[in-house]
Amino acid sequence: MSYWALSLTLIFVLIPLLLSKTLNLGLGRDMTVATIRSIIQLLAVGYVLKFVFDSESLLYIFLMVALMIIAATHNAQKKGAAIQGITWKIAVTLIFVEVLTQGILIGFNITPATAQYIIPISGMVIGNSMVLSILFLNRFTAEVEDHQDQTELILSLGGTPKQAIHRQLINSIKASMIPTIESQKTVGLVQLPGMMSGQIIAGADPIQAVQFQLLIMFLLLTTAAVTSVFLGYLSYPTLFNKRMQLLKG
Amino acid sequence: MSTQYKPAIHFQHVDYRIGDIEILNDITGSFPQGRITTLVGPSGAGKSTLLKLCNGLISPANGEIFVKDKAIGEYDPVELRRMVGMALQSAPMISGTVYENLNLPLELQGQQLAKEDALELLEDVGLKGDLLDRKVKELSGGQRQKVSIARTLVNKPEILLMDEITSSLDRASKLEVEELISKINRKYKTTIIWITHNLQQALEIGDYTWVMMDGQVVETGESSLLEDPQNQRVNEFVKGVVS
Ligand SMILES: Nc1ncnc2c1ncn2[C@@H]1O[C@H](COP(=O)(O)OP(=O)(O)O)[C@@H](O)[C@H]1O
Ligand SMILES: [Mg+2]
């Protein structure tokens, strides 16, 4: 795409800006900021990626992945404020998911160990793991709060913290995975996944694009399941003290 | 009051706080073993909180609690809570059937409640056997309270903590439950600590009574104290001015 064509895409920003102004939606400022930020951030990422790809240095790949994990942790951690030490728990979860998925991909020779594969796939895995963490934490804190009396009941009957929180934990793990599973059921019918569309537009063979998309989807299924279960089992013990009492607030 | 009785549970200068809020203030006293002690007082006095301290659902900020002469902190929480059983005020249920709720205490220990035992428990609390497979969400408030009592009995606790367990029951059911608890008390020498809003009930079923107000114990003694309280505030409470 030429720079002239790229500039013309700003028409797609002007339309909502005009609508916002005419209808007094008051979104003009936010949309302008969002546009400028996306231009700067994406261009910066593009140049950084180009630099990393050209250098083919494992150190740079490692640094990029580390940066993604830090940014994703920072984003997700705001949702789990009620859970002690949530920041490092999310970080450990993201690292675990990343190491596990890349380990399988590279270990079984599914994808080559080059920046071109590791970085975009890591981006998708870490990004999805972050969203799953947020979904899980939202649901789990709500479940714990809503069913405090059942937790207290099980403790009062001589149940352990794990028994007392088991239902809430399982419900939250299931609920956080549903969007991932549901979106896979309709994939291709309603809309083409972004990555696949991008590949096809860039000139790739559609069948090859589909193969990669399948790989990514299965990868994201693992990401979803492992994130919720891992984070869940790291989180629930901090809701109790050594005397097996439920800590409030 | 009870120098001739061994205490089942003894409180020694116990304070309890939530954040900066003082909920219980300097509680000292004993619950005699094998006897029924009732806890009365206006709502918000701290009765439920005191009961939760007795089976270690919460711990004091200051002071010490002894259960059968052993500091409560020395018990394994699981062992303590099976020995000191509690029927919670809100009669919480796990979702599922009446049987699943009755089975819960044993399920937590990897065991299973025999169906005959479940039926017998239902009969003890005055519920029909055909309720066994009913979903708990279909039960009335009174039925839930009865299931909650029956469930508490499954662990055969030595000390029974009852938090307003007859508040949603009609007169006949109330008498039935009172009779059941007295019977358990006589038959197994179970120590009972019973919170009730109903002063008549406290007078009839209790050997001893603690009157609580604003996080403090303001009067203790044989339950007949309620007929003629010495303390001015207790007097007002008994006359029904405060509720
Ligand atoms: N989880 C809690 N958070 C804040 N305050 C509480 C909590 N539980 C109890 N309280 C307060 O402690 C006081 C005593 O409550 P409670 O023991 O339930 O009284 P009672 O059973 O005598 O009605 C009340 O003022 C109540 O508002
Ligand atoms: Mg209460």
TrEMBL record, chain A:
Asked if the Swiss-Prot or TrEMBL record annotates the protein with the keyword Disulfide bond, the reply is no
Organism annotation: Planococcus citreus
Family to which this protein belongs:
Belongs to the UPF0014 family.
Q: Which residues cross the membrane?
A: 57-76, 88-111, 117-137, 214-236
Look up keyword Glycosyltransferase and say if it applies.
no
Q: Which domain of life is it from?
A: Bacteria
The record gives the membrane topology as: Multi-pass membrane protein
Which keywords describe this protein according to UniProt?
Membrane, Transmembrane, Transmembrane helix
Under Pfam families, the record lists: UPF0014 (PF03649)
Q: What is this protein called?
A: Putative ABC transport system permease protein
Q: Mind naming one GO cellular-component term on file for this protein?
A: plasma membrane
**Where found?**
Membrane
TrEMBL record, chain B:
Renumbered to this chain, the signal peptide range is none
Q: Which UniProt keywords apply?
A: ATP-binding, Nucleotide-binding, Transport
Q: Where is the ABC transporter domain?
A: 9-238
GO cellular component terms, semicolon-separated: membrane
Key word Nucleotide-binding present: yes
SUPFAM superfamilies tied to this protein:
P-loop containing nucleoside triphosphate hydrolases (SSF52540)
Q: Kindly give the PROSITE patterns that the UniProt entry links to this protein.
A: ABC_TRANSPORTER_1 (PS00211), ABC_TRANSPORTER_2 (PS50893)
GO molecular function, one example?
ATP hydrolysis activity
Q: An example of a Gene Ontology BP annotation on this entry?
A: phosphate ion transmembrane transport
What is the protein name given in its UniProt record? Phosphate ABC transporter ATP-binding protein (PhoT family)
What's the source species' lineage? Bacteria, Bacillati, Bacillota, Bacilli, Bacillales
